[in-house]
Amino acid sequence: MSATVIELEEDFKTDVATGKSEEEENNLCNQTLSLNQFPVNSAITENDAVRLHSLLTKGEKIPTKSDLNCCMVTLVEQRNAVKGWAKTRLVDKLISFAQNHKIMNPRDTTSLVTNLAQLEDAWQEDEKLAEKVWWVLFGEFDKWTGWETELEEEIMKKYQWEYVGFTGKTRSRRQKGCVAKIMVWQKAQIVKYVNVATLRPGSHGKSVCVTQPKEMLAAQGGKQKFRRPKGVFYPWMVRHHDEALAESNRNGLYSVDSEEEEEEDSKRPEASTDWQLKRHAKTLKVT
How far apart are CA 90 and CA 79, in angstroms? Predict the structure, then answer.
């Protein structure tokens, strides 16, 4: 496979959804999170640990190296737990969507697909499945309004987690939590994973996406003026990898709408509950 082929994130290729012991599960329970507790996929840093320590001590204690090491371990365990759970839950949903769209197992044409490998094989071997695969990877999520928040609530209920300052309160769309962001990231990894299957030798080499092709952007003066309606399939959403490869590598095959929301979120002020944590992260000195 050439170096230009879509690269999957290392965390997705590794099965982080391995079973945890009851003790490990219990250790993750009843924890308080900030909206920006951990980064989605970049390295967890000492600054992240300082913020967590400040959250846990309400900024009343200067952290030691041992304190920060413990916080780093906690952050890694929390993020791995979310990524593993999200991967398992999202794959289950995709297979359910694929079965609803009657995608058959290419190795047994009398039965529907039952796992991700069978879905990949089906898409690899039959480009006529393009519209169905698009619905599985994008269209059904368009119809599932607020899916990332719903899954966030599900796992946070499982571990009895709460975002500081939001107990029993409803957050606006501008206040997307770190857990919901990981749901979006993990779903994008699965999209890449399925699309990569058509790069295998002998396959049709097409991918499904929601990013507009260059000719559409050029017709709009180089700026995106057309905002796609959710849950509507267009033929331009299926094209060869050589047309979509550059943009898929750049944005991970997120939908255009998700990209815009994430970019807008990054420019907005952080939620008011995080200002104190941010201040402490800058002012506390590590001993």
Answer: 16
